[in-house]
Amino acid sequence: MYLSVPERNKTLKLIATLNHSLDSSIVRETAGYILLDLLQADQFASFVWDNEKKNFDQGLSINMSEDNLANYGSYYQHKDPITDKLSKHKSATLVNQIITQQSLMKTEFYNDFLAKDGLHYGVNLHAYAGNDNVGDFRVWRKQGRARFDDKAIYTLNLIKPFFCNAMKNIQQHQVIVKQATESSWLIHTVDLHRLMTRFPLTKLEAEITLEITHGLKDEAIVDKLHIAFSTLRTHIKHIFYKLEVNNKTLLIRKVRDY
Question: Where are the domains of the chain?
Answer without folding.
Answer: 5-171, 183-257
